[in-house]
């Protein structure tokens, strides 16, 4: 929710006289729609100039979201920005391409039977996670009701390092979140301590492929093995949803032998962000269920399609269709080998950066980008009392780089880390410049004889 208007903002937006066309107002209300229309060129200039002050997307090493595509993709985008994904009847080809794409993704994740698997596109992983979670909840409720058991107190088990969407899911849909704390010894949800967290009210366990804080994979097969043991002991048959927002479009190409997907029988559903390592511009996610029976019928609605009916399961109604076409473009353009090369190139750059940062006395790596091309580090304990990673983040921002620093989740909240997300488009040369800037900053900070005043702490969210 937006804060109240900043009182330092003047009430009006003033317009450079050079930009205002004859007869147009030179000043416009900031928080009210103006009375009169203006020419599109003038409106463009105002919006363009204000947006220019945003950070440079290519230097934003905080985000996982795609910031570069081929020119042909941009052309396709411009041709398709008016398509509404929900209008399956009006845009049947876009609807057909959507289905083709989720089937391709299901195949990539080893869905056992292409005939009975089911999936859809979403606006991003957040919506996809909500759908995965809702299916777990509804399935648990239906099975409990069939046994005449109460359904009032569902819970979901996950690591304390989950992305905020899972907190939202639990809050919005009245599910108790049960967080398994991560520690120095157990840096991800690895099955350790699971027994104390699950019970007959557990709707599922979330495994993250590419933990947002660090980029590390949670060992899905190991979590599954722990649940097998729990089932032997208690009879509870608990399914896994894999939140592969970033990793589900990396592991199939960089770690094809790693069994984290539908090869693990307990995995009921998987989500990913098409707009992260799916390499599409923002506004696209995917969710796939192993088989139709895992997505309760009661959650599915129908929309009209070719004069017939098409099942849909979504939180949004209207949503842009262009990104789905862009995903299909990328699947055609890159093929499996192209995806492998792009992800490998990002990982090479990330490992290069991690090695360079790990070599500095000031830092200790938390992980080294060997899962997805993301890694985090902390200040070496005792290195300096005069500066923190927040100061480094602040100084790098002066050079245009966005490299966030933030506390780890509960139980490790005393630890501050800094993280780099390498995406397609960060070249080795750019990485070299970033490393130079980090080294120069550390040299500068290490000459300080007194502590810096507190640096602004970015309100960075996971
Ligand atoms: C593990 C994980 N889950 C979910 C999300 C939310 O994804 P989206 O931004 O596509 O909604 C993210 C975003 O970073 C994430 O890292």
From TrEMBL:
Instruction: Name the enzyme group at the top EC level.
Output: lyase
The record lists the catalysed reaction(s) as: L-glutamate + H(+) = 4-aminobutanoate + CO2
Q: Which GO terms describe its molecular function?
A: aromatic-L-amino-acid decarboxylase activity; glutamate decarboxylase activity; pyridoxal phosphate binding
**Which GO terms are recorded in the biological process aspect for this UniProt protein?**
L-glutamate catabolic process
Keyword list (alphabetical) reads: Decarboxylase, Lyase, Pyridoxal phosphate
Question: Which coenzymes or cofactors are required?
Answer: pyridoxal 5'-phosphate
Organism superkingdom:
Bacteria
Q: Kindly provide the name given to this protein in its UniProt entry.
A: Glutamate decarboxylase
Classification from the root reads: Bacteria, Bacillati, Actinomycetota, Actinomycetes, Kitasatosporales
């Amino acid at each position: 929710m937006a804060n109240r208007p900043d009182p330092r903002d003047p009430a009006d937006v003033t317009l450079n006289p050079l930009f205002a066309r004859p007869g147009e107002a030179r000043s416009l209300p900031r928080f009210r729609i103006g009375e009169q229309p203006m020419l599109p060129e003038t409106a463009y200039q105002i919006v363009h100039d204000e947006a220019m002050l945003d950070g440079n997307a290519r230097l934003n090493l905080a985000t996982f979201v795609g910031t570069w595509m081929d020119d042909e993709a941009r052309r396709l985008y411009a041709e398709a920005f008016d398509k509404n994904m929900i209008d399956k009847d009006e845009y049947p080809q876009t609807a057909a391409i959507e289905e083709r794409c989720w089937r391709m993704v299901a195949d990539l994740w080893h869905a056992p039977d292409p005939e009975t698997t089911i999936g859809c596109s979403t606006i991003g992983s957040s919506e996809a996670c909500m759908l995965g979670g809702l299916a777990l909840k509804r399935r648990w409720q239906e099975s409990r009701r069939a046994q005449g058991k109460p359904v009032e107190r569902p819970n979901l088990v996950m690591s304390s390092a989950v992305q905020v969407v899972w907190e939202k899911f639990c809050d919005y849909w009245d599910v108790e979140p049960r967080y398994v704390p991560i520690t120095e010894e157990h840096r991800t949800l690895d099955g350790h301590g699971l027994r104390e967290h699950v019970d007959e009210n557990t709707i599922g366990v979330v495994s993250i492929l590419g933990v947002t804080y660090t980029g590390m994979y949670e060992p899905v097969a190991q979590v599954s093995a722990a649940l097998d043991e729990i089932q032997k002991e208690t009879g509870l048959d608990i399914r896994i949803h894999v939140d592969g927002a970033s990793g589900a479009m990396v592991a199939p190409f960089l770690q094809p032998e790693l069994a984290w997907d539908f090869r693990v029988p307990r995995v009921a559903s998987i989500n990913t962000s098409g707009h992260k390592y799916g390499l599409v511009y923002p506004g696209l996610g995917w969710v796939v269920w192993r088989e139709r029976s895992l997505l309760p019928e009661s959650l599915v609605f129908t929309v009209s399609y070719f004069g017939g009916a098409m099942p849909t399961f979504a939180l949004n109604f209207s949503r842009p269709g262009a990104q789905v076409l862009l995903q299909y473009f990328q699947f055609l353009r890159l093929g499996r080998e192209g995806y492998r090369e792009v992800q490998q190139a990002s990982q090479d750059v990330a490992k290069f950066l991690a090695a360079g940062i790990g070599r500095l006395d000031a830092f200790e790596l938390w992980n080294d980008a060997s899962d997805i091309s993301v890694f985090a580090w902390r200040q070496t304990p005792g290195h300096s009392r005069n500066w923190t990673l927040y100061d480094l983040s602040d100084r790098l921002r002066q050079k245009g780089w966005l490299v966030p620093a933030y506390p780890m989740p509960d139980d490790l909240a005393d630890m501050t880390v800094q993280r780099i997300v390498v995406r397609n488009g960060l070249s080795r040369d750019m990485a070299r410049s970033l490393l130079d800037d980090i080294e120069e900053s550390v040299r500068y900070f290490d000459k300080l004889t007194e502590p810096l005043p507190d640096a602004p702490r970015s309100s960075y969210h996971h």
